[in-house]
Amino acid sequence: MTVKIGMIGAGGIARHHLNTLSKIPLAQVVGVFDVNRESAERAAASVGARVADSADALLNRSDIDAVFICTPQFARDDLEAVAAGRGIHLFVEKPLGLELDSVRRKEKAIREAGVLHSVGYVLRYYDTVQQAKHYLQGRTVHLVQAYRFGTSHPAAWWRQQHQSGGHLADAVTHQVDLIRYLVGEYRDVSARFGRSAIGELYPDATIADAGAVSFTLESGAVGTITESCISPFNGESEIKLFGPDFYVQLSGNGKTVTIIDKERHVTITSKRDPSYEQDKAFVEAVASGSGDSILCGYADGMRTLAFALAAHRSAESGGAVPVEDEGPPVMA
Ligand SMILES: NC(=O)c1ccc[n+]([C@@H]2O[C@H](COP(=O)([O-])OP(=O)(O)OC[C@H]3O[C@@H](n4cnc5c(N)ncnc54)[C@H](O)[C@@H]3O)[C@@H](O)[C@H]2O)c1
Q1: Which residue of 139, 167, 196, 249 sits 20 to 30 Å from the alpha carbon of 131, by its own alpha carbon?
Q2: What range(s) does the GFO/IDH/MocA-like oxidoreductase domain occupy (predicted)?
């Protein structure tokens, strides 16, 4: 079976998926839509697909089995619910939105429609992340230290808080997600965001340029995330997990993992392309009808979004706030 795919959005990440999907024999991209017709035409031509006149026209079950929704988080409307309602399986990029109410509504619509769904928390697909997850089963992490510096995006929407949700919600969401995935759910969060430098570079920016976030997990473990989207001379990300008798460190967005305990001191760097693994898992799921190989579904991605939203509420209120526990528990 060939899985026929429609692509909504033809920007940076959509082109990355088109390139990745072209390496997956089961996948065939048949249609592309973008509000920028030229972008859609270029992207469609690169894979021999046609250009659709609207997202609604693209979401036609007789043309496609699955859709990749790759528009920015402010520009998705009800696309996920419409696709699901028409029986179209969906892959949607992270983060899932900018507030929880509409995301909850869409989650319900997807669940009730019974279609397959995957969210772009791509770092979960590193074999190194899987090894860390396996190692951590049954072990107690009591402290998490994470950071991510220097991720900026060229698009104007990205610098607008009401369109991107800021660096924590958009880029650092990968680290927020890996902490959930590896250690467990968040209980509460307390955050501070600064804006002391971003105006020098981008006078129109409304996002923060730095964040200092602390949290408690359901397990009782505590941790911090520090982040900045302005860091031209130091662009790195790391998650350090401390246990009473072990230490686990994920570097380079999870590509490299170090595990230290009394019996071992190993560092492994992945040779896998997690984007390929992610897209292949989704395409194969659609072909087989089983979502077992999908590592992040919609409800799971919604819980990751909830953390950033709670962090911003905390910064406004000045105190710790609970992270709303919507959706199913993280997959074992
Ligand atoms: N998983 C990852 O690691 C990863 C990496 C990069 C981006 N992303 C996510 O992917 C999304 C898109 O990011 P990007 O880097 O491709 O942005 P981009 O600015 O490069 O491209 C966005 C595209 O969406 C189009 N668009 C905007 N509104 C639209 C609408 N209503 N309908 C159709 N098309 C519309 C724009 O014309 C543009 O072509 C964001 O949510 C971003 O956070 C995820």
Answers
A1: 167
A2: 140-243
